[in-house]
Amino acid sequence: MPAWRNISLWMDQLDDPLLARPSLEHDLDVNVAIIGAGYTGLWTAYYLKRQAPELKIAIIEAQTAGFGASGRNGGWLMGNLLGEDRLLAELAPQHRRASFDLLHGIPDEVAQVLAREGIDCDYRKGGALYCAARYPEQEVSLRRYLDKLYAQGLTEDDYRWLSPQQLAEQVRIAKPYGGIYAPHVATINPAKLVRGLARAVENLGVTIYENSPVTHWQSGGLRTAKASVRAAWVVPAVEGYANTLPPLGRYQLPVQSLIVATEPLPASTWADIGLSQGQAFGESSRQVTYGQRTADNRLVFGARGGYQFAGKLRHNFDLTDSEVELRRYLFGELFPQLKKARITHSWGGNLGMSRRFRPHMLCDHATGIALSGGYGGEGVGATHLGGRTLADLILGRDTLLTQQPWVIREGGLKALKAWEPEPCRWLGYNAIIRSFVHEDQVLANPNTAPWRRKLATGIAGFMEGFMH
């Protein structure tokens, strides 16, 4: 049996014995074949079956439900979509407001499913705290971002500024400059969610085959080493593993995010820190940090990882000492009392990044192919949106979900923007990340000359522009 329990803290905390479901051993004829038993595949199957219970649906999984990013992420269930402000900027004000409301409602929609299906995944809707927490430039960038959101019609009910004193009512950090509070975020144990969803779709009549890597796929079906599946619809729901299913790897690159977790911390420590309502938190740097207080009182904290040449998957997530210590340094800057806290778990995962950092939900009725991806590390909530949207698209429903600017109805895969060939993307990605690291190092030093601070921020901002 593969060591699936060692994937992450979340998988280690499961009561589930993690026994593999049967492999695909015989040919199938189905209405919908879904590749991947992660969030996207499971949500798509769930909403298809809820709306059209007569459909015959099979999910073909290379490992086990939750092996990929769905069992490894930071546990933020966000009512957001990567780059939503850019994606919605061209809409009329009333349509933009409706789209924001659709996104912000994701955690509540998920909560309804959890209640209906009896899934306990430590769901706590405490919102998110985006903190200016390590140097004053973070306050400037956060206030600019908030102004941009307000200019798009959002209000303090959606996002509101917290003064250092107001921030301290929720989390007490070493150097508070203030922050943004967003109420539409919940924290969860993501492995409990994905395993619960797998059981829920099985109860609806969906069959999941595990330990069955897909070796070939195309319009009309797929193959594994032992069997073939014929299907009216094929849904490759693989996100960070897109390069295992050509030609998807041209449109979605695997990048890594890396996470650590402390031992359970005493009540006295949490009384000093706060986060008593299950809030998510992050400090506003281009390192992309994120954290939460778990249901068993650990600190889980992650930060941006890396990209491997030619978009190779990272398979070994035994983090190096330097990878662990960078994350310890970052959370220790926020909470000095935790600098020597014992770290019991460290892990990471591959996530999918589309060109221009633009998520997509695509449905091509001509070929019978539908997919959703490009979540860019914000997939716990976005996959729910993707699954609901794909279900409506496949069933030919015209709904608010299918009318969004991230939905692609024509052109098939060719409508997606392809990544540049190597070595361009490797050189570009690493140049951008180095500029972010340099900026962070310069700004974190209070003795850095003002001109150097301005230069570092300017270069990093210029490089970030290439990402879009």
Descriptive report:
With 468 residues, the chain is of the alpha/beta class. It folds into three domains: 4-73 and 190-247 and 360-415, FAD/NAD(P)-binding domain, CATH 3.50.50.60; 123-189 and 254-355, 2-Layer Sandwich (D-Amino Acid Oxidase, Chain A, domain 2); 424-467. Helix content is 33%, strand content 22%. It has helices at 9-12, 39-51, 84-88, 93-104, 106-117, 137-151, 164-168, 190-203, 267-273, 321-334, 379-394, 424-444, 450-467, and strands at 28-35, 57-60, 76-78, 128-132, 160-162, 178-182, 185-187, 207-209, 214-218, 221-224, 228-236, 252-262, 280-283, 289-293, 299-304, 343-354, 360-364, 369-373, 407-408. The strands form four sheets. The chain has an eight-stranded mixed sheet, sandwiched between helices. The protein has a six-stranded mixed sheet with strand order 8-2-1-11-10-9, with helices on one face. α2 (39-51) packs parallel to α11 and α12 runs antiparallel to α13 (450-467).
Summarize the entry for a quick read.
The chain contains 13 helices and 19 strands. It has 468 residues and is an alpha/beta fold. Helix 2 runs parallel beside helix 8 (190-203) and helix 2 (39-51) runs parallel beside helix 11 (379-394).
